[in-house]
Amino acid sequence: MSDQRLTCKACGSNSFAVGEIGHGYANIRPVNKRMTQGSPLLLTYCQDSGEIASMKVKEISKLKK
Ligand SMILES: [Zn+2]
User: Which superkingdom is the protein from (predicted)?
Assistant: First the structure.
């Protein structure tokens, strides 16, 4: 998963890191399922320019039922 080859579309760098946003009220939730706690999001970003290369739901199973 972590050795995927990415090239930044903004600056051409291939130096990426993964960050996490969410926790608690900032988690992503399906709009029609308010009872779920939701999941944080994982962002893969360029370490040189900050461009976001990928955004994904960390725990997709929590958004399914
Ligand atoms: Zn970049």
Answer: Bacteria
**61 CA from centroid of ligand 1 (Å):** 31
Distance 10 CA to ligand 1 centre (A): 5
Give, for all 65 residues of the chain, the pLDDT tens digit: 455 688 999 999 999 999 999 977 789 988 887 777 899 999 999 999 999 999 999 999 988 87
Residue 8 DSSP SS3: coil
Q: Locate the domains of the chain by residue range.
A: 1-59
Q: Ligand 1 centre and the CA of 25: distance in Å?
A: 30
